[in-house]
Queue: 2 jobs
Job 1
Amino acid sequence: MGRLHPEPEHHLRTPFQRDRDRLIHSTAFRRLEYKTQVFVNHEGDYYRTRLTHTLEVVQVARSLARFLRLNEDLAEAMALAHDLGHTPFGHSVEEVLDEWMSDSGGFEHNAQGLRCVDLLETPYPDFSGLNLTYEVRSIFTKKASMSELTRKGYASPKSTRFVSGPARPILEAQVVDLADGIAYNSHDIDDGIKSGLLTPEVLSEASLWKEIWKHARGADESAKRHAAVRELINRQVTDAAEETERRLHSGPPSPAPKPREGEYPPLASLERVVDFSAPMKQAESELKALLRTKLYRHPQVTRKMDRARRMVRDLLEMYFAHPEQMAAQFRARVDHEPVKRVVSDYVAGMTDRFAEDEHLAFFFPGALVARPR
Ligand code: MG
């Protein structure tokens, strides 16, 4: 469906390959290395960050896309982009931003992802944004309606076609969405056990894990864990591939409801094509529920998240009162844009460690900030 600013095609690379390359070279992508997935960056070099999570999503999405004979380059580009709008320290800080922005449209990471690729990245002289294809951008609109996006601060002069998602997310977007869940269920189990916050026994309350753990073989606990996590990914990917192929062969899905005036029904209300079989879906939600109560709500995790929330609240108030403390390209925007939205963009783009350093520098002036500034 093209790009907002028309460009001649490249004679060697397809449009989706070019989008992939633009994403890899973007600032927001490099910052994923220092953004929390579940474990805060400085807790250990072993744990997943948002960057390694993204790479695992890319890998699963490409496997599924290739097997289903979808556009692998498109799926790859979408997977690389899917988490660009996340704040430092993950979901709990996203809630802080949404609360803080509640009188100014709110905050949501998919809408923020769209702001990143359309407005905040500025590698080109003639327009802001990466000028990605409509199809790749639709990874951000897969869950939101036009009015939701506008409310969440995606005020864009661009045409509706370039803001709203398709009536039903295209298959590659559905693949990435599913791959996202497969990747984080598996790596959160891996990191959770490694960190000692979870045990294989506790996880065995979920039938799928119980069954896999029973048959996992390894010379020691850690080898056994690797084998089990590998098997968990394998089972989920294989199930999704086979179930989706079965659905594709059993005829077209029932037509998606017709959009009214730029209003699209949310993904949850639509019949999905790319999905698990019913038993795997059941097993997967069991695992997810267990991870929620035993890992994401573990006191050691929530303690760090509470600390991060307080830190980010301080920073938001501080930049709002002193916009001159932001980086130059953000300072320049406050004359012609609402200060709150500029501050929200600035803080949302931060890495965990940059936010921590800024907080130390402003609120604990006696503390040494080790990294060069
Ligand atoms: Mg993700």
Job 2
Amino acid sequence: MANVVVVGAQWGDEGKGKIVDWLSERADVIARFQGGHNAGHTLVIDGEVYKLHALPSGVVRGGKLSVIGNGVVLDPWHLIKEIGTIQAQGVEITPENLMIAENTPLILPFHGELDRARESQNSVAKIGTTGRGIGPCYEDKVGRRVIRVADLADNATLELRVDRALVHHNALRNGLGLEPIDRNALIAQLQEIAPKILPFAAPVWKVLNEKRKAGKRILFEGAQGALLDIDFGTYPFVTSSNVIAGQASTGVGIGPGSIDFVLGIVKAYTTRVGEGPFPTELDDDDGQRLGERGHEFGTTTGRKRRCGWFDACLVRQTCATSGVNGISLTKLDVLDGFETLKICVGYDLDGERLDYLPTAADQQARCKPIYEEMPGWSESTEGARSWADLPANAIKYVRRVEELIDCPVALLSTSPERDDTILVTDPFAD
Ligand code: GDP
Ligand code: IMO
Ligand code: MG
């Protein structure tokens, strides 16, 4: 039986949610392994729109186990609110179909405050984060002062953990001119939320290893995208977790040998939210058109996404760092009607041609995209469900993308709707 990891291969918002939902029909377990509610995954099923942030995109299908792994950072108040919203849309969420790893770090209110305080302090330090406390919580995890799900079960431990965290945070807040944290009020808040979270807590590593041995299929749902990875992204304009496929293993506690297929989700053009380099960014009518046709506004923050041409050079790089076996090309329909399409095939750095994005920030800033042009198509691809429905030039574009990124297309998506998806190679096939 195959286990599949889904990862974003650009700067996030590639359409991971739609593809995870579509693939989850073939899976038994759907597990988030990094990130938090900075993610915004949109599913459209028969016109009904679901926006998921902390919950795995598998929850909307009945009969599947959804898992929040230890690699995730979890805001318990947000989760309870999100469960309420999704339940109001008719989806059942119980400890039978949702499990949270006991060793998952908790995002607390002061993490969000710190995130937002840093973002507003001065423009030099600004990353353009989602303001949801993701970075500060991961810092606390690595700093060995985070509060984890299991700590909610015992008051004495909880108090110790809070005191440990506050030694650091109150000193930091003092420097930032913020009020110190009210210890007892925070403990009371945590004690109040604990009974709502603890029923979902479980040793996820154990459950998943048992499922694997029983031949169940696990679908790992990545958040963000490889160019936001803490190591391989456009640092420091990145998120605070490893996003690439290797993280699926440590983010739930399953061996790397259990992963059979890595599916990279790739948008047919490029978008990015927040600050940071973006070689193929367009600030002309073509960029405007991509944003309008693609409805490129953030699912989590509502911010306008920056838009640009497809960057094959970057995607070849991200397919390599994640070991992508096949891609799902999404939003091809957004390119309908362009007379000419451009694809970035390399960079010009001070007169030298590069086939990858260098690491040094000053060099990244000087990289000028080298474009190849392709003819567009005037026909509509929206809602296409087979290759036969695609115009010849659209097929040529897809084939050229495959060549340039050195990776085959396994799935093609032609609209936000679940079933407007073309299957080329089944990632779950043995
Ligand atoms: P994610 O974060 O990777 O899950 O992506 P988002 O949900 O943030 O953004 C992708 C957006 O594109 C959502 O509004 C989806 O409904 C939409 N979408 C996904 N696939 C397609 C597609 O093939 N065509 C079009 N037009 N929209 C799509
Ligand atoms: P999904 O899963 C796009 C970006 C933020 C910011 C940077 C750091 O929907 O693809 P953070 O709040 O994580 O510290 O912000 O990362 N970012 C995303 N961009 N899609 C996402 O998630 C993102 N999650 C974080 O805009 O630039
Ligand atoms: Mg998103």
